[in-house]
Amino acid sequence: MEFIGTERTAIFIDGSNLYAAARALGFDIDYRRLLEVFREKTRIIRAFYYTALIEDQEYSPIRPLVDWLDYNGYTMVTKPTKEFTDSMGRKKIKGNMDIEIAVDAIQMADHLDHMVLFSGDGDFRRLIEAVQHKGLRVTVVSTVRSQPPMIADELRRQADVFIDLVDLQAEIARKGGRPMPIAQPEMDDEEDIVHSTPADALLPDTETINS
Fold first, then answer.
1. Which residues face 91 on adjacent strands?
2. Fewest C-beta atoms under 10 Å: which of 82, 120, 165, 191?
């Protein structure tokens, strides 16, 4: 990875997109190790994690993960999902966090040297271009190793550095634990995914939420 130890760096994690990419590659993310890996290489100012929550559920399967991240070095940005019925009468769930990521990145840009975006969403190409005009270097983390690739070609081209998630697997993959479930609620498009994996399949092995 191309990092400079003195650079002021912020991490922006599109939670649903990273979850989908890791699932496509067949591993779970250890979020403690992810943060440690980047802190070893650069000066992390902030690590944002974005996800939508289904708030009318009696139990939200991602809530324990959200709480753990909030206690362990991440700045959480959440909002309720929206449920709608499509033209075929099917109920779908929408939980897109693109606006929240873009607003925070623009607001932080004057205080950063380097932005790391965990997403393959092509809608972020213009955001990357905008912060590059402010003098930031931008690294995008996603994957081309899945079928189909998770990163949009225009996003990869715009980034200063592209890191394939599979190349980080040895450092940030969760060790042991249960296999990753694949069930997810149906979304209106591939970019609006809400986690439905049990949170204990994502939390670090030996830590509790209140550690």
1. 85
2. 82
77 falls within a domain: yes
Distance between CA atoms of residues 106 and 40, nearest Å? 25
At residue 9, what is the residue type?
T
Backbone φ, ψ for residue 52 (5° rounding): -95, 150
Instruction: Tell whether 167 is covered by a domain.
Output: yes
- Specify whether the CB–CB gap between 170 and 177 falls below 8 A: no
Q: Helices 31-41 and 63-71, interaxial angle, to 10°?
A: 30
Global pTM value: 0.82
CA-CA-CA-CA dihedral for 112, 144, 146, 90, to nearest 10: 70
pLDDT digits (tens, 9 = 90+) for 101-158: 999 999 999 999 999 999 999 999 999 999 999 999 999 999 999 999 999 999 999 9
For 158-200, the DSSP string reads: HSSEEEEGGGGHHHHBPPSSSPPP-----BSSTT-----S-GG
Residue 174 contacts residue 202 (beta carbons within 8 Å): yes
What is Dmax (Cα atoms) for the chain? 54
- The domain of 31 spans 8-201
How many Å apart are CA 13 and CA 73, to the nearest integer? 13
Amino acid symbol at 2:
E
Q: DSSP state, 2?
A: -
